[in-house]
Each structure stands twice: as structure tokens, then as C-alpha cells.
């Protein structure tokens, strides 16, 4: 009830101010003129003069009463922006987050502080942004993991579709199918043949339940008609280390995590999990062209803000991100195993909604649960 008096006061103010300015209002009798008869012309002329003067006063008065209407969004940003990366430092997500931070800082003229906030499969960092003030000063480097977690965590403390608003997809990060250098398979066809000859005998390493590597491998199992069992690790690094050491023969990984070992000859990349071959690895085929038609698996990263963030702020953020559409930026991100994709809010919303459904079906079919 405390808001009724001020609002009523403002309504009364505008009624008192503007109703007498109507060209057919009779200020003596407090009613509208019935017409424009000659004896009323002097009244009308006087009123029109008063109207011009009082409109000028009204403009100044309104600005004084409601300064926040013109200043709140026009002043943004007036302080540093925080970009939450819900992953540990050093990963492809961290690289993208810091690259985005530099671009936004340059374009918006304010510092952008990248805060790594990992934990609970990105839920800790994502939840903190979902619950932040929708003022444009807290942003999230979102990913396809946000779509996965809707099903993977039945008691998720936030909703990526209701509590966050999309700004744009930043990049796609396809996986690649990697094996130890001494593993007998040199092609996807070799791997499928080996797996079918020994159902459940082969194993792949993953970064844990519901991780991109886990989902990519389970999708491969179903689409290739094989049974390769999962060995979960606490993170991508120990999973890759055991594949390099030969303890586990297979892993799905993004290029940035495997490039060093591949260049050193410690692992083989049998195929990439994208629609087309990667420009940085032109001689390596896709999984789809290697016999598993339609196979495509990877992650995406995008920028999101708390739900309710004003549209003018979202528009400025999108405009700033569009400056990343340069050959130099595309090449820098490509060298990290990602494809630049500044596609806007609608594309991110569509991808998020689609992935929630896709991963829900895969997680339920594969019986994936968080340990």
C-alpha cells in the first residue's frame, strides 16, 4: 500500500497540469467548450499561449521528478561488469570468457572482470548469475551444459529458460574421437568392428556423468550400434591422461584439450564430430562421413544475463559482441578448436530449447545419473 500515495500524487499532478491545456477547456466554468463560437476565441488563444509555456515547465518538472527514466540505462555501464565463467581456469571456456571480456571492455568502455566460478557441473556459477540483479553488471558464459543439467539435476536451483535471458551464442566446440597411439583401430570403421567383436570389452574415458565426452560417447554407442562402457573421471584432464598412458583406449574430447598430445604423437584422432571437416585438421574425416550417418556432437558457448535485464542493455551487449565477427577473431578461436558463431539471442534460445529435449531423451535412454 505504500506505493499508492506517490502514484496517485503523480496522476493528480498530470491531470491538474495537462487537462486545463486542452484547447476546448473553459477554465472559468471547469468544463469543455461546446464548440468554437467567436466569443470563445479569446479564451482559446490565451489557453494556447499558456499551453506552450506550461509544456516547457512540464518537461523540466518531469525530469526533476523522474530523473531515473532518462539516466538509468543511458548511464550504463557506469562500473565494471562481472562475467562469470562456471569452469576452472585454463579450459576452452576460460579462453572464450577472457576473449569476450576483452572485446566487451573495449566496446563498452568499462572493465570486464572474468570470475571463474566452477562447481556442481557449472550449477554454482550459473545459479549465482540467475539470482543476480538484472542490471547488466553480471553476465554468464553459458554452455550446452546448462541444457544438460535440466534433466541431469532434478532439483536444479535455477531454470536456464526462466531465470536467464539469452544474448548470443559465441562459439561451437565440436568433439573429436581420440584413441591411444597404440590402439589397433586407425579409423572409425576399425573401432566399430573391434567394439562389435567384443561387446562391453572396450571402454572410453569421460569427465564424469553428463559431461560432453560422456554424452558424445553414449550417442556414438546408440548411433553406431556398439557397447563401449564408460569409465568416469573427475575432470577432463585425468581422463585424457589415462588415455595417453594407455590405461583406457578411447575418449571424446575437444581439440584444445587434445591438440598437444596429438601433435606430440601420443594419441590418434580418428575423426571429428562436426558436420564438416575442421580447417585446422583438413585430413581428418568427420564421424558422419566415416559410417555413422548424421552423427554430430559437441558443445556450444554463449552469453546470457539475468532474466529481466532491460532490452536496451541487451541490445548494446549484442552490438558489442558483433565486433567479434572478424577473420582474425575467427582464426584465433579456430586454433582453440572452436568455430566462431555470433548469432544473436533467438538462435541461442532455439538451441537451448532444442538441446534440453535432445539431452533429456539421451540421458534417460542411457540411464545417466549423477553419482
From TrEMBL:
The lineage of its organism: Bacteria, Pseudomonadati, Pseudomonadota, Betaproteobacteria, Burkholderiales. Belongs to the UPF0065 (bug) family. PANTHER family: BLR1237 PROTEIN, TRICARBOXYLATE-BINDING PROTEIN. This is Tripartite tricarboxylate transporter substrate binding protein. It holds the Pfam family TctC. It comes from Cupriavidus campinensis. It comes from the Bacteria.
Amino acid at each position: 500500500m505504500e506505493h499508492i500515495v506517490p502514484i496517485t500524487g503523480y496522476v493528480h499532478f498530470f491531470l491538474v497540469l495537462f487537462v486545463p491545456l486542452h484547447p476546448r477547456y473553459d477554465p472559468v466554468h471547469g468544463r469543455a467548450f461546446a464548440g468554437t463560437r467567436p466569443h470563445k476565441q479569446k479564451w482559446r488563444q490565451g489557453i494556447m499561449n499558456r499551453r506552450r509555456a506550461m509544456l516547457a515547465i512540464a518537461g523540466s518538472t518531469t525530469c526533476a521528478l523522474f530523473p531515473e527514466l532518462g539516466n538509468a540505462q543511458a548511464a550504463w555501464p557506469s562500473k565494471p561488469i562481472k562475467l562469470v565463467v562456471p569452469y576452472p581456469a585454463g579450459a576452452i571456456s576460460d579462453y572464450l570468457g577472457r576473449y569476450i571480456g576483452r572485446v566487451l571492455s573495449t566496446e563498452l568502455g568499462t572493465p570486464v572482470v572474468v570470475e571463474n566460478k566452477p562447481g556442481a557441473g557449472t550449477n554454482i556459477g550459473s545459479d549465482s548469475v540467475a539470482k543476480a540483479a538484472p542490471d547488466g553488471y553480471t553476465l554468464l558464459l553459458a554452455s550446452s551444459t546448462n541444457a544438460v543439467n535440466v534433466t541431469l539435476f532434478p532439483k536444479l536451483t535455477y531454470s536456464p529458460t526462466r531465470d536467464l535471458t539469452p544474448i548470443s551464442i559465441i562459439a561451437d566446440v565440436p568433439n573429436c574421437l581420440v584413441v591411444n597411439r597404440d590402439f589397433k583401430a586407425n579409423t572409425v570403421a576399425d573401432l566399430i568392428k573391434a567394439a562389435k567383436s567384443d561387446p562391453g570389452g572396450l571402454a572410453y574415458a569421460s569427465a564424469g556423468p553428463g559431461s560432453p565426452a560422456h554424452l558424445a560417447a553414449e550417442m556414438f554407442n546408440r548411433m553406431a550400434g556398439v557397447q563401449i562402457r564408460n569409465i568416469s573421471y573427475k575432470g577432463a584432464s585425468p581422463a585424457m591422461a589415462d588415455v595417453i598412458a594407455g590405461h583406457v583406449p578411447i575418449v571424446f574430447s575437444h581439440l584444445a584439450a587434445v591438440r598437444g598430445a596429438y601433435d606430440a604423437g601420443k594419441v590418434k584422432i580418428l575423426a571429428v564430430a562436426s558436420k564438416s571437416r575442421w580447417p585446422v585438421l583438413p585430413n581428418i574425416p568427420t564421424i558422419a562421413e566415416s559410417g555413422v550417418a548424421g552423427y554430430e556432437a559437441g558443445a556450444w558457448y554463449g552469453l546470457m544475463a539475468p532474466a529481466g535485464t532491460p532490452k536496451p542493455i541487451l541490445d548494446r551487449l549484442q552490438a558489442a559482441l558483433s565486433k567479434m565477427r572478424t577473420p582474425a577473431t575467427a582464426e584465433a578461436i579456430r586454433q582453440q578448436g572452436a568455430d566462431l558463431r555470433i548469432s544473436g539471442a533467438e538462435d541461442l534460445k532455439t538451441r537451448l530449447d532444442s538441446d534440453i529435449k535432445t539431452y533429456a531423451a539421451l540421458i534417460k535412454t542411457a540411464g545417466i545419473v549423477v553419482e
